[in-house]
Amino acid sequence: MRYLPHTSEDISEMLQTVGVQSLDDLFSSVPQECRRKNELNLPPALTEWELNNHIDRLAGSMAVSPEYKIFLGAGSYDHHIPESVSYLLSRSEFMTSYTPYQPEISQGTLQAIFEYQTLTARLLGMDVANASQYDGASSLAEALLMAVRITRHNKVAVSQLVHPNYRQVIKTYFAPSGYEIIDLPYSQNGTTDLSNLDNLEDLAAVAVQSPNFFGCIEDLQAVGKKARNQKALFIVCFSEPLAYGMYKNPGSFDADITCGEGQSLGIPRTFGGPALGMFAAKQKYVRNMPGRLVGQTVDADGNRGFVLTLATREQHIRREKATSNICTNHSLCALASSIYMASLGGSGFKELARLNYDKCEYLKDQLRKAGYSLPFSQSTFNEFVVQFPEGFDTTYQDLLQKKIMAGLPLECYYPELPHHYLLCVTETISKEDMDRLVGAIK
Amino acid sequence: MTDFPGTTGLIFNEPLLWEKGKKGRTGFSLPRRDVASYPLDESITGDGPDFPDLSEVDVIRHYIRLSQWNFSVDSGMYPLGSCTMKYNPKTNERQASHPGFAGAHPLLPPHLSQGILQLMFELEKFLVEITGMDAASLQPAAGAHGELAGMLLFHAYHKSKGTPRSKIIVPDTAHGTNPASAALCGYKPVPIKSNEQGVLAPKDVAQVMDEETAGIMVTNPNTLGLFEENVKAIADIVHAKDGLVYCDGANMNAVMGIVHMGDIGIDVLHLNLHKTFSSPHGGGGPGSGPVCVRNQLEPFLPVPRVIQKDGHYLLSIDFPQSIGKLHAFCGNVGVLIRAYSYVASMGAENLKKASQLAVLNANYIKEKLRGTFHLAYDRPCMHECVFSDKYQQIHKVTTLDMVKRLMDYGFHPPTIYFPLVVPGAIMIEPTETESKENIDLFIDSMNAIANEAKENPDLLREAPKSAKRRRLDETAAARKPCLRG
Amino acid sequence: MKELSEINLPDDLRYAESHEWAKSAGDTLKIGITDYAQDQLGDIVFVELPDVGDSFEKGEEFGTVESVKAVSELYMPVGGEVVAVNSVLEDSPELVNNSPYSDGWMIEVKPDNPSEMDDLLTGDAYLEKLKG
Predict the structure, then answer these.
(1) Domain covering A83-340, topology
(2) For residues B88 and B92, what is the distance between their CA atoms, to the nearest angstrom?
(3) Which residues of C are less than 8 Å from B474 in CB distance?
(4) Is C32 in contact with C51 (CB distance < 8 Å)?
(5) Is A242 part of the contact surface with chain B (CB cutoff 8 Å)?
(6) Contact criterion met (CB < 8 Å) for C93 and B479
(7) Burial of B371 from C-beta contacts in 10 A (0-12 / 13-18 / 19+)
(8) Which of A39, A50, A365, B101 has the greatest CB tally within 10 Å of its CB?
(9) How far is B465 from chain A (nearest CA, A)?
């Protein structure tokens, strides 16, 4: 086996040094009752070439662009990824290094994370960002738990237009704690209805997503004001951060915590993971934040360098009193997003956001012209809801046959919205693709 | 004269991203604009982010230079205890970046995503077989996430019986994540000490196990690198009070094909695919922490679950007792593909061999260094061995000084000051992918450093000398945190 | 780290086994951590203190002190109400290292029961405890 370098000669020399007869004898401390009774039963080992064929076969069955035209976002977005991003990510020194606990020989990862924290904080308009977390869903769950810790209140209010899967994850995280989650309904224009908020007490946080699950931009000014009235933290979540290339970021509305999914920034979709949990907060909450943080300092010669810092918040030191049980960040995904953000630059980021917006507006326009109803009037980014006529589900299946996926049927998430579909357009979809979709629907 | 790999090289300086760049540059090929511009609601639009504008060359040089400041498994031996820094096979990368997988949307209908569903279904079966458990969920995104899943399973199990519990037993040798994960589920950790042999004694467990206690979290092999030989008796004690046994599988690399976790009474076990199953650490993630369970806990596993029906694979949420979702989609699928690729390439025989060789390497190091460094527990070890700086204290040299010096010799330091039960701990896990020559070179380096501790201790106190940076001022970093530029 | 003989333990203070000191200042007490404690912790990077007006029982946790890689709880040597906190420590936690008994004080307390001071150790008795 090519990953196992020991020759039989090596093995016998080493066994002799250890003072045992055989490899089996090394396990003398494992009592008989703990041993397996039979050998592992797994398929025979594949050669590298057999494995390639096998994986080609499995991967070949997947519906992916460009063969398929997928008008589907809902928390996972298709954007062009520059070759430089994938190329740099495959550098062994980034890919095969451990968490940078030994800063002298990990400055590459540390500086890259410091830069990631900076770009993230700038993008979201926040004071400080952590080194990243698992995904948007768990980041929001951690943000809500953080708000409970800070305010010592026991309820959180979460908009129904936060990604339904994120809301499921929050429920899982909160189940044993007994903290209450209050659903905020949505109003006719496709944004969160805040009218119930005034009657709530003991509120730790108000959380909305913007752009929300329907693609609509929330009135963050209003949400922030309501949250503050209730002495609750104001949390903004997102699944498509490219929107902040164009729309005002959460920081400009004085959000206390901003968190969400960064997959759209240069990370392949890979069936939903690995993704990138982005997490940022106001400076005054930094010691309550979950996750790793990299800080700037100097070395013994006075040269600028970077270290993991404020580690006393974390599980390996504070154990059961830690701000979270999280150990890892998604370092490599954070790196991908940094390289992506650096490649676009401020100017490119803005321009790409605008292009996404215009393409999406084009499709909205064409669908309206074709006589379909777009029920929510609020401004959107990349995604929007269309109400198709009854019986559209057959058309939807026909389109799949033609390798077009016409968005996400919303009924399984929002039973009150039958025949409503969530459509997504990014820069990877051409005008021709959109015209074909509209033509095929008719 | 031994030729150690450590050296200085041509290492470039490189500023921060925003200290370079110029307005008007770009590193991105902007896609063609084939639609007109549409009006915007100016009241909600902003200025866009304040990022530097860089050319593609700027970006490439920047990150290549940064990469050269990192140590990595592909450049040298990484004997980091409890972290299993084994070689990361390159074929795994090819499989995970296959466009059919990398481009797949997570909400594709099942009939258009059979390939990935089949892979996940089979990987679950592989992990179940390797651990000796009955069922698995691949959803947790990291080891700590797997632990959280495990604790949620405990919670759901006792709740389903109408008797929620409030405490959990955590040994003093446990990873810090264990109590932190338990606390997230509202459990109060009850600490117990390991005995003078470095393992748990059944009587100590019996003393604290009661009907208020949800169970115990063990790490087996434990963080001293020792097999918890009383695990079965301990499981019996816990089960007698209807408690459950959680096993942190961080150290599974020692026992593949050797120990049957189901038979020894483990009810829940999480695996770290980025340790045992060879996927790269990526400078701190992403990892993956599947959770394996025995039959009685299967109904509580996270959803969606991959199931097979009439020869087709489906994602099902039809498990009413499930703890729910832990991840927005199905977990870190990219890491799952790498683990699948690893198991498929290794097969049963080589997986067992990997464990045997990992244990051989650790015992060999233990024997070779036992005179030079104080051995915390003088017993046969599993995949890692734990020394301390006790013999070097007379030279006023610490564990930290010695491992920093190791960098100059071209090795990554071992895990230090953990487990906490060994003061000044030096925890060495060589893994099976290091050859005898590499191991010998590491041993020679450690011996050389022990000599330097006697003869020229300042060399150690000032180490490292050949790294990109000398020792960093962590106190200043924490007193006045500067977390962004 | 200091040898035990190098530990400074002023006579006018009283000491708790959990390594806090208390000093009478009229009706109130000042509280901090001992020279031994600051030396063991190493460079202190953060001190978390209660709010003025908070009340704690003797032995109750009133805050934490952090070095780069450790967190230690602070326990009340005497029960009472917090009347002042040393807010300078927020920006200058190093004062606890440099001057544990004067500039590095932590809280000032109005004791519920001033006689609790008598249960604390003298410097000599505390040193004996340290020697074990």
Answers:
(1) Aspartate Aminotransferase; domain 2 (3.40.640)
(2) 8
(3) 68
(4) no
(5) no
(6) yes
(7) exposed
(8) B101
(9) 9
For the residues B160-172, what does the mean pLDDT come to? 94
Closest-approach residue (CA) in chain A for B64: A88
User: Is C29 strand, coil or helix?
Assistant: strand
Chain B window 413-452: which residues touch C at a Cβ cutoff of 8 Å? Answer: 417
Which of A287, A311, A321 faces C69 most closely, judged by CB atoms?
Answer: A311
> Which residues lie closer than 8 Å to A121 by C-beta, 6 or more apart?
A127, A128, A129, A280, B484
Of chain C residues 14-73, which have a CB less than 8 A from chain A?
45-46, 66-71
pLDDT recorded at residue B7: 76
* Site from B475, B480, B482 to mutate, C interface, most C CB atoms within 10 angstroms: B475
Interchain pair B474, C66: CB under 8 A = no
pLDDT tens-digit readout, B190-209: 999 999 999 999 999 999 99
The per-residue pLDDT of chain B, averaged, comes to 95
Statement: residue B109 has pLDDT above 80: yes
Domains of chain C with CATH codes: 22-117 (2.40.50.100)
Per-residue pLDDT of chain C (132 residues; tens, 9 = 90+): 788 889 999 999 999 999 999 999 889 999 999 999 999 999 999 999 999 999 999 999 999 999 887 888 999 999 999 999 999 999 999 999 999 999 999 999 999 998 999 999 999 999 999 988
ipTM of the complex, rounded to two decimals: 0.97
> How distant is the Cα of C25 from the closest Cα of chain A, in angstroms?
33
* Residue numbers in C near A287 (CB within 8 A): 46
pLDDT confidence bin for B95, thresholds 50/70/90:
very high
Q: pLDDT value at position B1?
A: 61
Buried b (16+ CB within 10 A) or exposed e, A383-393: bbbbbbeeebe
Strand partners for B216: B169, B245
Q: Quick one: tokens of B50?
A: 């304040």
Name the neighbours of A, counting chains with at least 3 Cβ pairs within 8 A: B, C
Is a pLDDT exceeding 80 seen at residue B307? yes
Q: Please say whether the beta carbons of A324 and A140 come within 8 A.
A: no
How far apart are the CA of A49 and the nearest CA of chain B, in angstroms? 10
Among the listed residues A217, A89, A249, A223, the one whose alpha carbon sits nearest the alpha carbon of residue A158: A223
Most C CBs within 10 A among B393, B471, B479, B480, hence the mutation to make, goes to B479
Q: CB contacts < 8 Å between B and C, how many?
A: 14
What is the dotted CATH code of the domain comprising A69-81+346-441? 3.90.1150.10
| Higher pLDDT pick, B385 / A200 | B385
Other residues' Cβ atoms within 10 Å of the Cβ of residue C27: 9
Q: Where are the domains of chain A?
A: 69-81+346-441, 83-340
Mark yes or no for CB contact B478/C94 under 8 Å.
Answer: no
CB contact under 8 A, C46 and A318: no
The residue of chain C with its CA nearest to that of B479 is C45
pLDDT of residue C4: 86
| In chain A, % of residues over pLDDT 70 | 100
- Quote the percentage of chain B above a pLDDT of 70: 100
Contact B284 A328 (CB under 8 A): yes
Average pLDDT over residues B286-297: 97
Among all residues of chain B, which has the CA nearest to that of C42? B475
- Kindly list the residues from chain B whose CB atom is less than 8 angstroms away from the CB atom of residue A338: 17
Interface of A with B in 277-306 (CB under 8 A): 286, 292-301, 303, 305-306
Q: pLDDT per residue over A18-71, tens digit each?
A: 999 999 999 999 999 999 999 999 999 999 999 999 999 999 999 999 999 999
Domains (range + CATH), chain B:
9-21+46-67 (no CATH), 91-345 (3.40.640.10), 350-475 (3.90.1150.10)
**pLDDT at res. B394:** 95
Q: How far from the centroid of its chain's Cα atoms is residue B23's Cα?
A: 41
CA dist., res. B337 & res. A400, Å (int): 26
Alpha helices by DSSP H, A294-370 = 315-318, 331-369
